[in-house]
Amino acid sequence: MIDELVKALLPLSAPPTGPGWNHADMSRLLGSSRRLPAAVLVGFREGVQPRLVLTVRTDSLQAHAGQVAFPGGRSDPDDGDALATALRESEEEIGLDRTLVTPLGYLDRFETISGFCVTPVVAKIAAGAQLYPAPDEVAEVFEVPLAFLLEPANLRRYTMEFRGHQRPMVEFIHGGHRIWGATAAMLYNLLQRMGRT
To answer: Coiled-coil ranges per the record (predicted)?
Structure first.
């Protein structure tokens, strides 16, 4: 499964640039305002059944409180690139030791309603990596089998109204967690690149 996933990624030697794959949709909602750079780690824990590592954001955060998210966030000036941002943020949010992460490639960039252009970094996480949520940012860390995400019946489609626009959306429900919004859209991009939609 991981081999199939790797073949679908943009290579580490050619990180994505330019606007997100959903730029036209976001431009209708946000106009032409500058999108701030950000990156997330789409990390799969190694094992017989690879598992995607996700977080639940604390209820006290100003943006996206209580939502399921990838570890990641806004790029700092000191970050050399999206990979550096994703590794730094994963260390800060879930205590992930960067020496236990093997970057594999990238997904297409994605623009969020909060004004970011996110570069998703796909990586393997060592099976024995210990994860410790930072209590001020992360309420919970949980894992979802890659096999679950690849099962077409588990991809739910719906329409949401936002600022007078009808927007097609996707979501996954796993173990009582609702994976939706930007996180689900980036996973959908992965499935598209793998030819699984």
So the answer is: none
Q: What pLDDT does residue 197 have?
A: 82
Cα(150)–Cα(2) distance, integer angstroms: 12
Identify the three-state secondary structure at position 12: coil
Q: For the chain, how many structural domains are there in total?
A: 1
Contacts of 192 (CB under 8 A, 6+ apart): none
User: Which alpha helices (DSSP H) does the chain contain, by range?
Assistant: 2-7, 23-30, 82-94, 146-150, 181-193
Point out which residues pair with 93 in neighbouring strands.
none
For 66, the domain range is 2-193
* The predicted structure's pLDDT at residue 29: 77
Collect all residues with Cβ–Cβ distance below 8 Å to 50 and sequence separation of at least 6: 1, 2, 44, 124, 145, 146
Q: What is the DSSP letter of 177?
A: E
Walking along the chain (197 residues) 10 residues at a time, the average pLDDT comes out as: 91 94 86 90 95 87 69 93 96 97 97 92 97 91 96 92 79 94 95 91
Q: Which residue has 């099962």 as its token pair?
A: 151
Using CA atoms, how far apart are residues 15 and 9, in angstroms rounded to an integer? 10
Instruction: Provide the whole-model pTM.
Output: 0.93
Question: Which pLDDT score is estimated for 143?
Answer: 97
Query: In this structure, what CATH number is given to the domain that contains residue 100?
Result: 3.90.79.10
